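Q: How do we represent a protein-ligand complex in a form that can be generated token by token?
A: Start from the inputs.
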Amino acid sequence: MRTLTGITPSGTAHIGNYFGAMRPAIEAQASGDCFYFIADYHSMTSVTDPAERRANTRGIAIDWLACGLDPEKSVFWLQSDVPEVCELTWLIGSLTPMGLLERAHSFKDKTAKGISPNFGLFAYPVLMAADILLYDTNAVPVGRDQKQHVEMTRDIAIKFNQTYGETLVVPESVIREDVAVVPGLDGQKMSKSYGNTLEIFGDEKVLRKKVMSIVMDSRTPVEPKPDAERNLCVQLLKLVAPPDAAADLEGRLRAGGLGYGDLKKALFSHYWDFFAPARARRAELVAHPDYVDQVLREGAGRARSVASVVMRRARKAAGLE
Ligand code: ADP
Ligand code: TRP
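Then emit the structure tokens for the protein with adenosine-5'-diphosphate bound:
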């Protein structure tokens, strides 16, 4: 049973990414055959500065390794280190109806926002399908927004198999229903696009300021707060604090007597402690760039050995050899 997912190399990882995507992926390493890659080819539709792409790609690779991605257990590589994915994109793209791509929500959303579409944006789901199909993937864990892309991958694989004979494994999406949507510092879903993120890594002063600036209501500290479980700081505390500590703070808030300033201080301190081991690992990784290069190089080698077998099968089926 092979699990594969792609990681978008955009910006700095936040705790929504951690609880929603990184931690489940890292936990899955205990039980399965995991393939994780950084989707740097996909970043080409949004980033056109080479230095920015390089920095983002490397930064996100280090973030994942620091948070517990284990290159002994998982295959971890950069998408563009296995360029066969572009060849498979062409083979399957030649069977993909325009209508299917025109119905993609992500494409429709971007064009609705006024982004003038280019071929890369339109073909984005075909490249994503190639990512999945190139590695005989069974399961694709993704956020809800990517479900449609995995459905398209299934349609494309079925079409290829009908046209050229059984060649490609038809994957399933795994939507992480049990994973809570992490609220951002303004109470909406935490997202880079809303500017309400709390980063996993970064400068202590800046991050403390972000936490201390969370806007609360105007009730006085002594007032009991019967709705304590809906308090944003309490919700975030439940993610980063040991359960008894979170329950204790929630109880004190409910009873009255705990001020919001103290609540925010407690939140910051638990959040800072929660990520302390990852922060230490990240500092190590930053100090050893050769190690990171080697991990990605070895990962690419392992990924490529699977990809070349599937690519050969697809080329033969299609009469390219
Ligand atoms: P952003 O919205 O900040 O741009 P991405 O779209 O890059 O985040 O998300 C990367 C991964 O992190 C996806 O799997 C997504 O489901 C998950 N994720 C992002 N924000 C949250 C959140 N607030 N709560 C839970 N998971 C999240
Ligand atoms: N499009 C995905 C996202 O924006 C990233 C991605 C690229 C991906 N290729 C993939 C996810 C293959 C799963 C499988 O999050």
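The beta strands are 2-7, 33-38, 74-78, 139-142, 172-175. The chain has two domains: 3-182+289-317, 202-274.
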